[in-house]
User: Fold these one by one.
Assistant:
Number 1:
Amino acid sequence: MNEAAGKPAPRPGILDIAAYVPGKSKGPAGVAVRKLSSNETPLGASPAAIEAYRGLADRLELYPDGTAGALREAVAARYGLNADHIVCGAGSDELLSLIAQAFLGPGDEAVFTRHGFLVYEIAIRTNGAAPVVAEEVGHRADVDNILACVTDKTKVVFLANPNNPTGTYIPIEEVRRLHRGLAPETVLVIDAAYAEYVRRNDYEAGIELVSGSQNVIMTRTFSKVFGLAALRLGWAYAPPNIADVLNRIRGPFNVNGPAIAAGVAALGDRAHLEAAVEHNDVWLEKVSVALRDLGLHVTPSVGNFVLVHFPDEDGKRAPDADEFLTARGLILRRMENYHLPNALRMTIGDAEANEAVVAALAEFLEPS
Ligand SMILES: *Cc1c(COP(=O)(O)O)cnc(C)c1O
């Protein structure tokens, strides 16, 4: 008998999906945990955002504003955008899924890079389209390789800039060159989840590229530097033709009221944002240098995390390091799912957590 008979079958492609595995948050019983596995900010959310969130606690019977108008206005004012071209989502993950849902179906292809963010592949397969992987060069997206993957079946190209988990970025000139190489019918998604952290003269998140096109979307999130990951809040800036499409298919109340209020307040707290970026600037450098001094290879990162590569030596590989660190309550991210079995990703934490990881890895690497 046909194995599939007698039970519902999902659409083709869905059973090919490897479910997303979030960062661990637990260590051994009784050991204090420092979670550096999900790129969360060690500074937490802005106190103003927390207050705004609490302010809605006794109004939970009310539906939120389905247009998230206050948030779109606040984002528009902050970044100099037209609020009509902003679409909010329950995390940028939702927006990435909506984009895939709107533009991908069976027979279509979508391109992302070898170590690109895993949500793209899930979103592509969910819609029955074929994922196409462009090789990176030095763990960095390579525009020529991406363009070489593009065919007339390619409907969407996903680029995380900077990328998670590698932490690398490509200059805006390269993103423009990528865009010029695509047909006007192909959607270019620039996922700029870590844009606020990047301090490089040749980096831009892609706002101008969106404004001047009909096929570029930039996605942003409140989960990372703004510290609102628990609320699930993101936004996309898109040309009117694409914003219109996303607005047709999104849930009518896809962003919740406390999230809208907290997001508006977070945008207003410049000092908190600057403190978070400043902290990261200092510790990204310190951690990268300290780990390299231990002899580890650290991919140069502009995000709030580093990709650390371990020696190919018995007892010193990434899974061994992970076990050693976890026993001490230091939780980093395993990278097998990202085809980086001998690397761990470490989120930049507070001073104490960062120093604890460096000290533990020094001990781990000592010749036995
Ligand atoms: C964390 C992250 C996101 C954001 O996810 P949310 O759904 O907004 O929490 C998007 N893209 C990348 C590359 C990320 O690392």
Number 2:
Amino acid sequence: MPNDSIPGRLIKAPENFLNREGISTVIAEGKRGRRDFIARAFAAAAAGMAAPSVLAQSNPVPTEGGDSNILNLPEHSKGLGQGVAANDGYGKPSKFESNVQRRASPGLTQTTQASVSFAPLQSLFGIVTPSGLHFERHHQGWWDIDPSKHRLMVNGMVKAAKVFTLDEIMRLPAVSRFHFIECGANTAVEWGNVAVPTVQYTHGMVSCSEFTGVPLITVLEHVGADLKNGKFVLAEGADGSSMTRTIPMELIKSGEVLLAYGQNGEMLRPEQGYPLRLVVPGIQGVSWVKYLRRLEVGDKPWAAKDEAVHYIDLMPDGTHRQYSGIQECKSVVTTPSGGQVLLDKGFYNITGLAWSGRGKVTRVDVSVDGGRNWRAARLQTPVLSKCLTRFNIDWAWDGKPAIIQSRAMDDTGFVQPNYGQLRAVRDTRSIYHNNAIQSWLVQESGEVKNVQLS
Ligand SMILES: Nc1nc2c(c(=O)[nH]1)N[C@H]1C(S)=C(S)[C@@H](COP(=O)(O)O)O[C@H]1N2
Ligand SMILES: [Mo]
């Protein structure tokens, strides 16, 4: 157990250090109290006596029970580092993180222009998805549109139809809010019990950003939209996919729907709809129209192609459910998850993400025995409405097979269903809105596998 061995190591290493000249002085000083030592260390550093020089004078020998690497002085402790990263342009992650990438699914048909890439949830911390790792869904490819040429028209049931430039939109009062976006088809292959290997492919069509933009209601008021008889707004994208979606006026009146140009402190990424996209918190990704070029105020839903043929749910009684836009409460454990390997028994921090299109996550329970027993996980702050919430829970693995699951609840009282409960309502042939409890089997070898429990 790592729990037992770590203290042993820590105790043995300093004993060896005591015999080495130079370091013994540091430890002797340390005995006067930690605050005093830190103050002296700062004073030494200020006088040009950086800590590494103390190590450099010593004669490293392997330590008993410790990791001798700590005594091998690496190049980067002796030489001069690189100038500024800015010399290479926009900052990039460490080269040691090069496997942390968005990936296209081996299970989905890919053409060059109609495609999906999944976010590497297993490698992310906290709740924000780095912009370069945000999932992508393009019905007809992505574009990098010149913002000075982009226009937004607002027409329909308005007093004065108007065409806005991006500059005009960016002059309006703005807000910044954290929200998740999830494609309605996230976790779709699991309906068929296909069991793709990793959480990147089971749940990687969800991402979370801080979006900046203008509440859509501000712009509608500006053009004198008929907010009494106008019940819906049609949003249209400028790409070749003819993406048009009906947005209920009630949502817009709540002030939550944004005309967004900012994402995580900078302009939207081209693949996320630069220079302008709709943000519709809690609603499936397809309604977050990218490259937004037109908004039309109307009094009934449009039943556009992506509302009449696609993005409908086939129900067990043979009917089609339309406009089922809300992403219900859902969660997934991201570590340990499919494809990962536990190297030893002992302590692990089980962690994952929970979200609800209806509001805040209030509780996440975690099971390590396939749903027989549940324990409440710690919710990491901030816990925001219609936003990813990070959860953590302690686990000591005994080396025996375990099935890890998470079950989220939101502030409407909704409890995330298991596959048995979801299939009873939705049958087995659905595509969209799979929010069932995910199960990861930890095998005796430590290898983690995607399994489905009913
Ligand atoms: N103009 C336009 N908007 C679009 C799409 C598109 O293909 N074109 N795809 C939609 C779908 S199905 C989803 S899930 C989200 C994906 O957003 P993302 O690529 O920023 O993750 O954008 C939506 N908005
Ligand atoms: Mo989507």
